[in-house]
TrEMBL record:
<feature type="binding site">
    <location>
        <position position="177"/>
    </location>
    <ligand>
        <name>Zn(2+)</name>
    </ligand>
</feature>
<feature type="binding site">
    <location>
        <position position="126"/>
    </location>
    <ligand>
        <name>a protein</name>
    </ligand>
</feature>
<keyword id="KW-0456">Lyase</keyword>
<feature type="disulfide bond">
    <location>
        <begin position="224"/>
        <end position="244"/>
    </location>
</feature>
<keyword id="KW-0862">Zinc</keyword>
<dbReference type="GO" id="GO:0016020">
    <property type="term" value="C:membrane"/>
</dbReference>
<dbReference type="GO" id="GO:0005576">
    <property type="term" value="C:extracellular region"/>
</dbReference>
<dbReference type="Pfam" id="PF01436">
    <property type="entry name" value="NHL"/>
</dbReference>
<keyword id="KW-0106">Calcium</keyword>
<keyword id="KW-0677">Repeat</keyword>
<feature type="compositionally biased region" description="Low complexity">
    <location>
        <begin position="11"/>
        <end position="25"/>
    </location>
</feature>
<feature type="compositionally biased region" description="Basic residues">
    <location>
        <begin position="1"/>
        <end position="10"/>
    </location>
</feature>
<keyword id="KW-0479">Metal-binding</keyword>
<dbReference type="InterPro" id="IPR000720">
    <property type="entry name" value="PHM/PAL"/>
</dbReference>
<dbReference type="GO" id="GO:0046872">
    <property type="term" value="F:metal ion binding"/>
</dbReference>
<protein>
    <recommendedName>
        <fullName>peptidylamidoglycolate lyase</fullName>
        <ecNumber>4.3.2.5</ecNumber>
    </recommendedName>
</protein>
<dbReference type="InterPro" id="IPR001258">
    <property type="entry name" value="NHL_repeat"/>
</dbReference>
Length: 400
């Protein structure tokens, strides 16, 4: 089961000479931390406690050195030695709990990931294609002369060894983005280049496609750079749409539109979605959570899946986590919402991997410093796989 455990903050080190069987160490910029940024009420409480403590300290008498600075009357050397010993223990623990996966073949920019029923890691990547300022014109269209990516864009990887077992997706996708796998094992992907979503069959070829190829739009038959798909057990699915549309669209299993909703814009200070980038569906709680990337928040809405007296229309705001940095990906397992963020707009928050207990609202940060993380997958055993771009690599973090 996925049960996060808090640890002292530590900065893992590179091991320059490691056994050939050992996974690569994390870069020194990655480190763990025990707490996510607190809610506003908690911050106010901490500030109040801090002010009181400060006033108390101002009233104390200290021995001072020749510069008038307070002198520590404790055994400084003993304390420092104990802290160093604890840090070394935490560093060793870090190397066991978080590492870089060595894949047997290089991957392109990793945009989406999921684990299939066999426990294999399914990775959606961009091969040799990159997204830059020239990829789309002012109307959000790709150059009509651009062809689908010729190389494979889907890699099936042994989640333990990193061995690439299969490759698929040649000549199908223009600019891969999100990937999810439904309860029946079908793979769903979004292509921000073609403005389409696809459900893939056993041969990794589309069996259902929505959106007009290479044509962006805002109506029920079009998307504009859609980012992610979340699928319910009954076949109803949700599409985050996307980079140039600020909405979530709900479909029945046949692809008919059931509902469209946006983040509310009201007097309470809410604002519309600013790149709904990732989705997590928690069916038994009737919740659809949206990673609202540039608004630096996760917002959870009623999914509209519950029936009877619990029935609530889709898109009713339920709860949110604000000011947590740019949220690139979220996934849920056993009522734990796991997310990965980039730095916030003003640079005060580092990139981080966080978990949130959906039953209690308690949040923990487990790893800081994962630059350019874009995708997540979670195993039943509590391992989190984080896909990065530039460098294109996979970080494995054990939260169990």
């Amino acid at each position: 089961p996925l049960l996060p455990r808090s640890r002292r903050s530590a900065r893992p080190t590179y091991a320059s000479a490691r056994s050939s069987r050992a996974p690569p160490a994390l870069p020194a910029s990655f480190r763990r931390s025990a707490m996510l940024r607190a809610p506003l009420s908690s911050l106010l409480l901490i500030a109040l406690i801090g002010a009181t403590a400060g006033q108390y300290l101002e009233n104390q008498e200290y021995d001072v050195d020749e510069n008038g600075l307070p002198m520590d009357s404790g055994n400084v050397d003993a304390v420092a030695e104990e802290e160093e010993q604890m840090t070394q223990v935490d560093k060793r623990e870090e190397e066991d709990k978080a590492f870089l996966m060595s894949t047997s073949k290089p991957l392109g920019q990793i945009s989406g990931m999921a684990l299939d029923k066999k426990g294999r890691l399914v990775v959606f990547h961009r091969a040799d294609r990159v997204w830059d300022e020239s990829t789309f014109d002012e109307s959000n269209r790709m150059d009509g002369k651009v062809a689908p990516i010729a190389n494979s864009t889907i890699a099936i990887i042994n989640a333990t060894t990193g061995q690439v077992l299969e490759e698929h997706g040649e000549n199908l996708f223009f600019l891969p983005h999100g990937l999810s796998i439904d309860s029946e094992g079908s793979i769903w992907v979004t292509d921000v280049g073609s403005h389409q979503i696809h459900k893939l069959g056993a041969d990794y070829k589309p069996v259902l496609t929505l959106g007009e190829k290479l044509v962006p739009g805002t109506d029920g038959a079009h998307f504009c750079q859609p980012t992610d798909v979340a699928v319910a057990k009954n076949g109803i699915f949700f599409v985050a749409d996307g980079y140039c549309n600020s909405r979530v669209v709900k479909f029945d299993r046949n692809g008919n539109v059931l509902a469209v909703f946006e983040a509310p814009d009201d007097s309470l200070g809410s604002s519309p979605f600013l790149i709904p980038h990732s989705l997590a569906l928690i069916e038994d709680l009737n919740l659809l959570c949206v990673a609202d990337r540039e608004n630096e928040r996760v917002q959870c809405y009623s999914s509209g899946l519950a029936e009877g007296h619990r029935s609530i229309p889709a898109g009713i705001p339920i709860t949110s986590a604000e000011n947590i940095g740019r949220v690139y990906a979220i996934r849920e397992k056993n009522h734990y919402l796991v997310g990965v963020t980039g730095a916030d707009g003003d640079g005060t928050l580092e990139p981080q991997l966080f978990t949130m207990d959906m039953n209690t609202g308690k949040a923990n940060t487990f790893l800081k410093g994962i630059e350019n993380a874009h995708a997540l997958a979670i195993s039943d055993e509590g391992k989190v796989y984080v896909g990065q771009m530039n460098p294109n690599q996979i970080v494995v973090v054990d939260l169990a």
